[in-house]
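INTERNAL AUDIT FORM
Audit reference: QA-55
Scope: verify that the stored structure record matches its stored sequence.
Auditor: D.O.
Record contents follow.
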Amino acid sequence: MRKTFGLSAMFVLAVALLSSCTSQKNLIYLQGSEDMNGDILHTYSGDEKNYSPEYVLAEQDMLYIQITSTVGNEANALFNNNTNNNYVSSDNAVFLNSFVIDKEGEIGLPLMGKVFVKGLTVEQAEKKIKEKAEEFVQGAVVSCKMVNYKVSVLGEVTRPGTYTFYQPSVSVFDVIAAAGDLTYYGNRHRVKVVRKTSKEDLIYTLDLSEASILQDKKFYLQPGDLVYVEPNKNTKALTTLNVPLNTITSSLSILTSVISVVSLILTLSNK
């Protein structure tokens, strides 16, 4: 009987250890000094104060450009390849009205010719193209979007894959949210960003538990970046089982209950 109780105690201990193998602190993002209201305080200095995460255009970026006019349909016929549709309705429509930035940092637009946009934000490029279009048509309205803002995410996330974004800036949190957040096994202290440049391959390691990460330039991604989430060392052994931790703990809890019942039956039968 003592042996049975000892075995039961071991299983209870195993459940407790598995349930606490990753502390609550390791699962929380953006930790930092907090005020009396629980708000995180972080003082920025130097370049951090003026840093803007908005992406600036580079060589080989692809821009979807649609030019219309508040005065008639003349602009649509002059500038747009997709003359029957003023909106993005399919991949073909996007492709037909997209322009790649060449080695000189320029895009070639119908009628307007070359327009230099390298180093500009999408909003700045849109404004510059509008000014150029107004030389040819009154009331020009320009819509400009990046279509190659694709970022991949691998490792301990719910849905690994490649995601396309259309906003002017994309952060690591944007990609993680698109991928369904980190899994229980994801190491929030070691998230890597792999960036390929024309000169070299760069690898950054970010700690997403720190609130100061929001003002780190490496936190904001560029097209083609790869985000890799490492597994926690203390749960790495469990990942090889390919079984969720809550399933393991639930199974052990049930097994512990069965052992307790058997132990009770044995106790009663020995009386």
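Auditor finding: record pair retrieved intact. The radius of gyration is 28 Å.
Action required: none
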